[in-house]
Specification:
With 71 residues, the protein is an alpha+beta fold. It is built from one helix and two strands. The protein has a two-stranded antiparallel sheet with strand order 1-2.
Length: 71
């Protein structure tokens, strides 16, 4: 199987993010510099949406059936 340049770049980005998360507690990379906020409250938490052509941080949407456990 031959990987595209975009897939290879994404793979390197993920490796760098995991490495930085293990070393420093922050999943940042040279391609993705946004700070992922520390989770202190699930109502205000965010997640990292990883995609080959453009990862981004998005607010965590808690399903209504799970909101009971946030109290």
């Amino acid at each position: 199987y031959t990987y595209t340049d975009e897939q290879m770049k994404f793979s390197r980005q993920l490796i760098e993010q995991w490495t930085n998360f293990i070393k420093h507690g922050r999943p940042t990379s040279s391609a993705f510099r946004d700070q992922w906020p520390t989770v202190t409250d699930l109502r205000k938490a965010s997640l990292m949406h990883l995609q080959v052509n453009g990862s981004e941080i998005k607010p965590l949407t808690v399903p209504s059936g799970v909101k009971f456990w946030l109290n």
